[in-house]
Amino acid sequence: MSVSSREASSADRFRVRYKHELPPASKKNDDAAWKQYLHKTQRSLQQKMIEMQRLAQEQNEEIEKVNRERKYHQQTTAYELNALSQEWRQLCVKNMEIQSACAVLETQIDLLKREASERGWNLEEKLESVKPLQSQ
């Protein structure tokens, strides 16, 4: 590719991108035509810059909105998680208390059975006679 064709290709891409026509070949050396072209291009670039700043601002606002929502959900979830964790700990303590109470009752039952056996009482026979009463 020759230098002039590369320059033409670059100029075509520039023209398409910014939609400004370069001064015609007949005005190639006309300072006023080039100044007008530069002025239009600068205005276009300023408008594009303003648009990009507006879009960036909108993007930042959207990011802030998402971050606020995420923070709110994290805080709400943390509150719920802490409440559930506390409830779980309380239930674990209750379960340990119940297990301890059951162990105490089992020990008392074993002592009562031993005492009944020492006195010659047949608890199994007595318990079977009580069962039909409980089912009624």
UniProtKB/TrEMBL annotation:
Keywords: Coiled coil, mRNA processing, mRNA splicing, Nucleus, Spliceosome. Pfam families: BCAS2. It is found in: Nucleus. The keyword Secreted does not apply. Residues 9-31 have a biased composition (Basic and acidic residues). Residues 1-31 are annotated as: Disordered. Residues 38-115 form a coiled coil. Belongs to the SPF27 family. PANTHER family: BCAS2 PROTEIN (PTHR13296), PRE-MRNA-SPLICING FACTOR SPF27 (PTHR13296:SF0). This is Pre-mRNA-splicing factor SPF27. It comes from Brassica napus (Rape).
